[in-house]
Fold this protein.
Amino acid sequence: MAVLGVSSITPAFPKIVQELGISPQAVGSLIVVFTLPGVLLTPVLGVLADRIGRKKVLVPALMVFAVAGGACSLARDFNVLLLLRFLQGVGAAGLGSINVTIIGDLYSGRERTAAMGCNSSVLSIGTASYPAIGGALATVGWYYPFALPLAAIPVGLAVLFSLHNPEPKEPQRFKEYLTDARKIVATRQVAGLFAVSVITFIILYGSYLTFFPLLIEDSFSVSPFIIGLVMSVSSIATGLTSSQLGRIARLSSERGLIGVACVLYAVALVSIPLVPSLWLFLIPTIILGVAMGISLPSLMALLADLAPMRQRGVVMSLNGMVLRGGQTLGPLIMGAVIVIWGTSGVFYVGAGFAIVMLALVVLMIK
């Protein structure tokens, strides 16, 4: 559910532009209004998860995500659709961060890195299948992919009755809790990891998820289903790579793996505008998938290592806020870039962000 809200609808973007009579820049607002609540609410939900328990936050979030998301499929006005997407984003705000907080509670050390890799692999099953499913549904009608969040209702019930996870015991006084959390977040290493998070998601949600579908449609005039199929290959590569992260991590530190991923991001993004045929797009999308498969779980494992259980929820949620910021800024930044430098410029600027991210890894992360 944490990756459903964006990856299932982006293949429908070309049809939404046509059917609702909006500009390519405006369609990116469907991502912006969805991710914006996460920027504001994720830290609050992290504090609540530390203070009252993980499940007491996670279950209501899933239900809000389901109801508001399902209602989007009934909207036929773009402004109403934006409002419902905002409400859906309220429910989505804490899903990914509470998920990795619980994994951090359950595992430690290299086992935690391997577990984060397994989690990323499971997420990739969603990001691999949702573009193809969403593209197929959008072929029938642009609004059908918006019904998929209703699946969060049985997921929420399963979490409520079947998830057995540790919860923080005897919480600290609130002032002491905030003081300890502030000390953790103020370290150079955590700040560097937060910076890597925001840039990664500017690249993924700006260059790739928002404008890559438009590049394919403009260049080759293919259906949303084909667009979703090409994009799914990236998620398959992510899933296969992250499922083996426990073994890969024996060859290099998490910091080294993130650095390699930065180089791969740059190579893939520079290559995309130069691709001459549709199916050759599989090469840069696979490279992007491998980069995501090694960088994101490595980053989550490093953050979980730095935070004790009592503050882990807020630290992971602050990272969730930061990456939501990247998700929100990505379409806005690249929307401005496409006006100035065209579609190709979106990917060259994304490659530049990847180089900046590599510099941050070298300078700020031990």
User: Anything to note?
Assistant: The mean pLDDT is 88. The radius of gyration is 19 Å. DSSP finds 17 helices and no strands in the chain. The domain at 4-164+173-364 is CATH 1.20.1250.20 (Growth Hormone; Chain: A;).
